[in-house]
Every structure is written in structure tokens, then in C-alpha cells.
Amino acid sequence: MTTKKTYGFTTTILHNDRRKDVEHGSLHKPIHTSVAFGYSDARQLASVFQGKEPGFRYGRQGNPTVSALEDKINQMEGGVATLCFATGMGAIGAVVQSLLRAGDHVVSSAFLFGNTNSLWQTVTGQGMDVSFVDATEVAYVAAAITPATRIVFVETIANPRTQIADLKKIGELCREKGILYIVDNTMTTPYLFRPKDVGAGLVVNALTKSIGGHGNALGGSVTDTGVFDWTQYPNIFENYKKAAPKQWGIAQMRAKALRDFGASLGPEAAHHIAVGAETMALRMDRTCSNALALATMLQADPRVAAVHYPGLASHPQHALATDLFRSYGSLLSFELKDGIDCFDFLNRLNLAIPASNLGDTRTLIIPVAHTIFYEMGAERRASMGIAESLIRVSVGIEDEADLLEDFRSALEG
Predict the structure, then answer these.
(1) In whole angstroms, what is the distance from residue 242 CA to residue 260 CA?
(2) Which residue in 158, 230, 273, 353 is a FRET match for 64, CA 20 to 30 A apart?
(3) What is the pTM for the complete model shown?
(4) Is 79 helix (H, G, I), strand (E, B) or coil?
(5) Alpha-carbon gap, residue 253 to 236, rounded angstroms
(6) What are the pLDDT digits (tens) for 295-325?
């Protein structure tokens, strides 16, 4: 009897493709551009369509290159199945499109990525109800649950103010209530944290960000961790109950969100993301280290009013982050003292780039209230703790000394 060897995070991801049946010994899964897949036996084609055997039907629902990436993400998250989508928002939209119905209720963290907040606002206009709560305390989540609650949705580290949800206790609450717990793992990545460990049934990742890591491809994913009991979920159609119960949710999402809704990831983007993912752990170690150094420097500067980063002892959830995560992430935000113009400050930076993205190799910086959170208005921003002077930083892999000097010089004017 042979025992399957267990490898570390990066080794597993780096060699994942070649452990499968890869054409011509290629070290990367090749880019398959075909949208149609032919069969020499028409009965086999029918069998694939009916879900009786594995295979590819049409590019909208699956592709060999995309499937290889799905397997890679699944390995990272310790899941039973993963689906990839055209964007991270496409992945979150897939949950809404495939798993919710009119009359359902969602409890969501109030501290959300702006576009996710906008999506929930859209959902409320389609006959569903969403309650926004302070997810840093499980009591607020518990108080919002109703008999119609189908989903509890949180982010690990909130963008941009870095609040951290009470992830373990929310997971315990959802397990007790039989509610589907969904965690957006984008800001931590599977390298820093596995939501499965705190009871998440579904895990969302915006692959555009740190997993792909180079700002050259859009993508998103939903991983079923195998933790949730789909036999207790009332919105699964009979058509998708032919497989084992652990596959019901992903089968319905593949049909409703990929086949019907069409938010499919293209093979070229999947290839870029898969190659980028191989160095994710190395990049995350560097960006987390840089972020802590930058946050520490900014906190000590008299021209900075506040710094929000989980790695600082002053952060309200610092102890929670230390308990949950391998490190504190590459995202931080800060507020300048009154009288310092944020646009003038941004324009004095030479290395940090004013741009809207996260998890790139380069440091990116943006004035939050004036750009990505502008549309939601001052009142909603204030409820999320977003000051009008807040500046978000996605820290890159630059040399630490160069990065700190860039910010120090810009502050000095």
C-alpha cells in the first residue's frame, strides 16, 4: 500500500498541471480556444450532457484550460469543486443568480467592496431582502437572521477600511442555524487563510487580484468546501439532485450561472491567472512584509491622522487577525491630517501608482471617497467608516526601502 505524499502550498500549485493528463508533456495546461467539443460516439455526447460522465459540452460551461485553473483553486481552498467566472463580481453574481429566489433574505457585512454593496442594492429591487450588519461582532449577525435567511455573506478583510469579520463565531452560528455561510477570501487569499476552517460552505475569490497577481487578467471563482449540507437548502431544483449531495450546489451554479447567465472565464485569462498563481505565496510574503513596514511608518508620521491595517497593534481586530491569518495582507488605508490635500500628495508619489486595482505586483493607491466609493454617497460612506480623506493602498513587491522613501518624500512635500 502506497501513501500519497503531501506537499506544501507552493509545491502543490506549481506542479498541479503536470500531475494531470497534460498534452505533449507541457508544464502548463495549454490554452484551448475551441468553444465546441466533438465526440466520435453520439451516445457519449448525450451522456456528457446528461451528467452521467465527465466531459466538455460547450465553452460557456467549461473548457480544459479553465478546468485546470479550477482544479488549482480547488487545491488551494481544500474544496470539493470550484467554478471559475469572468470576474470576481461574476462569481458573486453567480451566487445570487443561481441560489437565491424572491422572498429570500441575506445577512451581509456592512463593510464591503463597493461593487458588492451595489450588487446587494440591485438584489433588493428583485424581491430579495438584504440586512447590512457590523460583522466584526457575531451578535449583530445573529440578531439579523430571520426564518427567510438563506445566506450570510462576509469578507475576510474589508476593502478599504480593513475591518475583520468575526469569522469563526459566524461560522459556528451558521452551522447551528443551517445557513449557507459564504466568505469572500480575496483580501487574504487561500495562502493566508482557508475559510473552510471556520465553516464556510462557499468561498469566493477575485482571481484578478493577488492570485493572478500581475494585473493582466480578470477572473473570479466560487469554491464549494464540502462543509454545507445541500440537502437542507430549499432552493435546489430537482434536476440537480442526481449527483451526490455535495455536488448539488456547484451543479446548479454551473447550469444557472454559466450556462444560463454566461459569466464565463475565457481560456487566455485562465492561463494568465494559472501561471500567476504559481508565485502567489512568494508575492504575498513580500507584499505583507512591505505593507506592515509602510503602515508602521505612516502611523509614526505626524502628518497622518489614522492608519488602518490589521498588522498594527492599534487595529481593533489585531488579535483576531493574528489568530486567524498567516499574515495581515497587502491592503492598508490611511487618512491625512486636515489641511493636506490628498490629490497633491498622490501626485508627489513616484513609485505608487494612482490606479484602481488590488493585489498587483506594483503598489497602487487611490482616494476612496472620490472614486470607487463616490457613487454610494457621503451618508453610506460614513456608515462604513470611510472618511472623505481616506486613501487606499494596495502594496506591491517593490524593495521596502524604496517604497518607504517614496511615501516619506511625498508626505514631506
Answers:
(1) 19
(2) 230
(3) 0.92
(4) coil
(5) 10
(6) 999 999 999 999 999 999 999 999 999 999 9
